[in-house]
Here is the input.
Amino acid sequence: MTPSFYTLGIETSCDETAVAVLKGEDDIVSNLVYSQAGLHSRYGGVVPEVASRDHLRKLPYLVKEALAQAGIGPADLSLVAATYGPGLVGPLLVGLSHGKGIAFGAGIPFLGVNHLEGHLFAHRLSAPASPPPFMGLIVSGGHTSLVEVREYGDYRLVGATVDDAAGEALDKVGKLLGIGYPAGAELDRLAGEGDPRAIAFPRPMEGSPGFDFSFAGLKTAVLYHLRKHPGEKAADVAASFLSSVVDVLAAKGIEATRRYRLKRLVVVGGVAASLRLRQELARRGKERSIEVAFPPPALCTDNAAMIASAGAFHHLVRGESHPLSLAPAPSLSF
Ligand code: KG4
Ligand code: ZN
Here is the structure.
């Protein structure tokens, strides 16, 4: 590890403008996240053009502040790492172009980071002494994937959602319950006040072979239930729906870890901040002698420290960098 190696991380793939400075491979010296949620909440979801314009407006100030908090200037940076996919093309373009400009101006290397790989690096930051191999469960607003992490940089996709992501389902059901966007955190809180056994929602694909997920039908089941029972207690709906999502994620996550003969399941992405998911997975992991690890909630939701960490790894350990011609890749996968 090079102690004076500073990486500037930039994340703008969706509706968070995030900038971080990382020292070496795992020392977070500044980590700023500006959420545009308030801007999009009245539309019930992210409006791409509004997101692009707001990233453009906020990003230069966040970079300045992140460097100031780190006590360094652009000339002290060693690397710039920015998310280049997956995500919304306009927002990606803003972060990518800004990052390239800083790298070019400072005469330092630039690296584009896969946002999904970035989520896995939240674990590397929070538990550097707990390296691969492990099973990664990425649960976010845009993705629900199981990934075998043989080592950092070496991944095998084991399963993914065939329709909605878990977070997307949470946000859509939250909207049905009158919760503003994004609804995950509030739905998780509300569920704590309800009875998870009040309504028997389906557990989609829980018993099916393989490790794919499906959450679109479950969301529709909630919609139909609410139409039939308009007076249903919101906390009971939240608790019953969330327990169905959590059951499926926990069952598939633990089973995939076991099937691939791994001892650890690492859960990352915004939905990994859910208290109910954390509690249920910890319980099932104990039962099956599988260690379940979660980064702290602030590193589960979108942030740039994880992007800087993935970038620093690829550059310092693997010797990689990208040309400034690197284009955004909205549909990037593993
Ligand atoms: O990883 P993330 O910040 O952004 C994407 O890459 O999509 O994940 C955002 C998702 C949203 O669907 C949001 O509702 C959900 O994570 N989320 C939560 C919590 N905090 C955010 N879901 C459950 N419990 C939370 N505490
Ligand atoms: Zn994310």
User: Anything to note?
Assistant: The pocket of KG4 (ligand 1) is lined by residues 14, 140-142, 167, 170-171, 182-185, 188, 269-271, 273-274, 301-302 (CB under 6 Å). Strands lie at 6-11, 16-23, 27-35, 79-85, 110-114, 134-139, 144-151, 154-160, 264-268, 291-293. The CA atoms of residues 83 and 113 lie 5 Å apart.
